[in-house]
């Protein structure tokens, strides 16, 4: 028989293809086989997904250095990790659209806005949430490249590091976000700023684990890193508002006080 992935001839008693390493699938797809495959792929303690999650929490430098230095099979690759994060984020956004209302949005950060404007911003943020999330990756990567670069990483390698970092953070906080959102949606909105700061601290933790600067240098570089990410954050917000004006999502009249 031939491998179904690379079409290389192989013996019938092989469980894995000796050419491409793919698992030999010998049975039709049933609910039992499907459940086993999902459990084996994502929840087996020996698989790359769980191993990557655990290591990025306790020894993130191992995963990131391994990928940059050419290791490809031991840990989940950054694009797959990001794909899982975006899938969970999409599920969370879907639930948010069902349980959050423009009134909660206005109470959190839209005081003084008209109901029409708050609804427009509310819808736009949800529509472009994934794009905004991805835009944060180069912002953090550039800040890290300029402040923490003892190992001489390329900027492209910093992009890989922050794909891992941002995806990991999104995956880890998903259960907390989901429970909070379902129990108390207004409390979820109050978590936004603390979670943002915790994300920055996790990023600094990873940078320090990779580069191992002395304490004094770490504090100084962390301060500069925070300033650079803050500038990048406001730059994204400004670009987002500019995009909304250019596309007609909002207009200047929306910001004028209603008679």
TrEMBL record:
The protein's name: DUF3667 domain-containing protein
Matches recorded under InterPro entries: DUF3667
Pfam family, one: DUF3667
Keywords: Membrane, Transmembrane, Transmembrane helix
Regions crossing the membrane: 82-100, 128-148, 160-182, 188-207, 219-252
Organism: Muriicola soli
